[in-house]
């Protein structure tokens, strides 16, 4: 049995392309692996709190010395980290907002990438003192954007701060492999958009096969 954690980040409940992709991925994954455990977080509808000065102070207070108030401040982070730790596959369905990720998704990442939980920090390691504590996970990134050309060698590749940002930080989510499917052209609503959607849905079964062989 593997564990699938699905994170939905679109602020839209209706007509969301990334949510629809995520739903199809989940459905096909669970159909091919019915015994799998499924954990779901709708952070688009219920965004996690932004981290704060007190949150950071609580994180840097040794566990046994935290006040009740500090433990309460970290309670959501603790639960989100438990969910992440359990997961073998993390599926994040998300829109591109302002060339990057939605604030809700950044808030989730800030809550789960936490010192002495998901990574350790040691200056004895030299110029790269951070090391993830988790490993072996696969990340499935299902994205939608209004413009186009954000892929490799595309006309807007250098404007894409969504996929590359998530890929960089995914190391500290314990991710070894990233799979990405993107829909583009939503704002144009033309045949290119239609083709982009078709090609995204066509890619899902092959991607599931590749992940299943590697997990
Ligand atoms: C607040 C906001 C910001 C957006 N910023 C961008 C952007 O920077 N680049 C882009 O290509 N599309 C942008 N879009 C278009 C969305 O990425 C597109 O509508 C996408 O389909 C939204 O995902 P969803 O359908 O899952 O809700 C933006 C849309 C919104 C609502």
Automatic annotation (TrEMBL):
Stated name of the protein: FMN dependent NADH:quinone oxidoreductase
Enzyme class: oxidoreductase
Gene3D superfamilies: 3.40.50.360
Any Pfam family matching the protein: Flavodoxin_2
Quaternary structure and partners: Homodimer.
UniProt entry keywords in alphabetical sequence: Flavoprotein, FMN, NAD, Oxidoreductase
SUPFAM superfamilies for this protein: Flavoproteins
Required cofactor names: FMN
Organism in which the protein naturally occurs: Amphritea atlantica
Cofactor annotation comment: Binds 1 FMN per subunit.
Role this protein plays: Quinone reductase that provides resistance to thiol-specific stress caused by electrophilic quinones.
The organism's place on the tree of life at top rank: Bacteria
Catalytic activity: 2 a quinone + NADH + H(+) = 2 a 1,4-benzosemiquinone + NAD(+); N,N-dimethyl-1,4-phenylenediamine + anthranilate + 2 NAD(+) = 2-(4-dimethylaminophenyl)diazenylbenzoate + 2 NADH + 2 H(+)
EC numbers for this chain: 1.6.5.-, 1.7.1.17
Domain Flavodoxin-like fold: 4-202
Residues annotated as binding FMN: 10, 16-18
Record-stated family: Belongs to the azoreductase type 1 family.
């Amino acid at each position: 049995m593997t564990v699938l954690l699905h994170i939905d980040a679109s602020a839209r409940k209706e007509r969301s392309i990334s949510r629809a992709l995520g739903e199809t991925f989940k459905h096909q994954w669970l159909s091919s692996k019915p015994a799998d455990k499924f954990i779901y977080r709708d952070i688009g509808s219920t965004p996690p709190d932004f981290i704060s000065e007190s949150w950071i102070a609580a994180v840097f207070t040794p566990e046994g010395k935290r006040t009740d108030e500090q433990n309460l401040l970290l309670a959501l982070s603790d639960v989100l980290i438990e969910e992440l730790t359990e997961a073998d596959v993390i599926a994040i369905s998300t829109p591109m907002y302002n060339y990057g990720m939605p604030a809700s998704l950044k808030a989730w990442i800030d809550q789960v990438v936490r010192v002495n939980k998901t990574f350790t920090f040691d200056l004895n390691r030299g110029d790269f003192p951070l090391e993830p504590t988790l490993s072996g996970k696969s990340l499935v990134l299902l994205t939608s954007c209004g413009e186009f050309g954000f892929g490799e060698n595309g006309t807007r590749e250098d404007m894409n701060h969504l996929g590359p940002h998530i890929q960089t930080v995914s190391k500290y989510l314990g991710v070894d492999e990233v799979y990405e499917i993107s829909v583009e052209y939503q704002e144009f609503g033309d045949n290119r958009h239609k083709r982009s959607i078709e090609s995204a849905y066509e890619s899902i079964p092959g991607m599931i096969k590749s992940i299943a062989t590697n997990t």
